[in-house]
Amino acid sequence: MKKSIITYIITLCTITGILTSCDDGRIYEEVVQVEREGGSVRLTGTLSGNNHWASGYSIVLAGFADDSEYAKTAKGITTNSNGSVDMTLTGIPSEVNTIEICAINRLRKRIATFYTYEYTEEADTIRIETGEIDASMYHAIQTNVFDRSCTSCHGGSTSAAAGLYLTADRSYNALVNVVADKSEDSLMFVNPCKSEESFLHLVLNTDITANWSMNHIDMVTSHDLLQLIDDWIDNGANIN
Questions:
Q1: Considering the entire predicted model, what is its pTM?
Q2: Given 2.60.40, 3.40.30, 2.60.98, 1.10.20, which CATH number is that of 39-135?
Q3: CB of 161 within 8 A of CB of 209?
Q4: pLDDT, average across residues 158-163
């Protein structure tokens, strides 16, 4: 009996020694290091007009490389009730060199740009504050079509050809629901929801002006911009 007790005590001490030698009493947490993939930017500012675009377009924060018209990465912009934006775009590829607030189509092709930031990847998140931006469909047309191709004749100087002013402060009221003087069918320049019945569409897409002092079919050669104008009209021709 005594021998059995001694054997039990020796066995117990041996097991305790083994456990003690394997466990120093501390609990170690597994440390997992996750390698960061791409850069990131945080955008703050205020946008207006971004929620009233026609279907097929998206207002996004996007990254572009070199002269490509297609976004390498993009994230839709959602505004709060007061128009404010606070969002982060992550995983930006290293080849991206510009970050833009822009409108893209379903193929992620840039249609219109509202804000551009020259981008170089950094270890920390880059903060971008834009202030107030008009990201409306009509503003995109004004800046990309009228300001670039039309105002030199229509209001950029002291007078406007055919009395039609297409400067930013006058273009909307001069076009929407206004009968075109040169329309033999008394068409409106812009007939909301009816692009093909709008004189502006005919002027830019057909040879109706071939006998005028300037053939306007050559004024806007970008299919994307011509489609943008038609989509704006068919979507109600809103100013914001």
A1: 0.82
A2: 2.60.40
A3: no
A4: 84
